[in-house]
């Protein structure tokens, strides 16, 4: 049960593996980026997505800047390392910077940074999130909680650890 678009919420779980070399990359002055899923910077990932999706890994040198287009209605920058600034707002490692909807922005690194640019188009139906469960229905999340507690979810291949539900 994940954040899937309307009409696909009950699709079976799917896993795809794409070697790093198969993911498109691009260079800008002081910026190296790789499009993991979706389309950005004139590149399209081979990862199959069901909805317009943005997921880009960027390495930005100290002092370098990169233009982020207004290609998606929802966009954010997760700073994995370093420190960045977008539209006058700074963000450091471990912080998520939500970008203004519909605006192109310039991202600049104050310190060398690894940034995940993520987002996509809004779903027509709002979603609820609880722990690892995402659905357009609170009732479906409650059902998933029961199924998880009862061990009715398929196990992850080559994984034996069971993680109990967190408290409500």
Give the helix proportion (percent range).
Answer: under 10%
Tell me how many strands there are. 11
Tell me about the largest β-sheet. 9 strands, antiparallel
Give the low-confidence spans: none
The whole-angstrom Rg is: 18 Å
Secondary-structure element pattern, one letter each: EEEEEEEEEEEH
CATH 2nd-level architecture of the largest domain: Sandwich
Which superfamily, in CATH terms, is the homologous superfamily of the largest domain?
Jelly Rolls
What does this structure look like?
By secondary structure, the protein is mainly beta. It has two domains: 20-120, Sandwich (Jelly Rolls), CATH 2.60.120.10; 124-168, no CATH class. Helices cover 7% and strands 42% of the residues. It contains one helix and eleven strands, in the order E-E-E-E-E-E-E-E-E-E-E-H. Strands 1, 2, 3, 4, 5, 6, 7, 8 and 9 form a nine-stranded antiparallel β-sheet that branches. It has a two-stranded antiparallel sheet with strand order 10-11. The mean pLDDT is 92.
Features:
9-stranded antiparallel β-sheet, mainly beta, Jelly Rolls, 11 strands, single chain, 168 residues, two-stranded antiparallel sheet
Brief synopsis:
With 168 residues, this protein is mainly beta. It has 1 helix and 11 strands; from the N terminus they run βββββββββββα.
Question: How is the topology of this model organized?
Answer:
Blueprint: E1 25-28, E2 31-40, E3 43-44, E4 53-60, E5 65-68, E6 74-86, E7 89-92, E8 96-98, E9 105-120, E10 128-130, E11 133-135, H1 138-149
Antiparallel strand pairs: 1-2, 2-3, 2-4, 4-9, 5-9, 6-7, 6-8, 6-9, 10-11
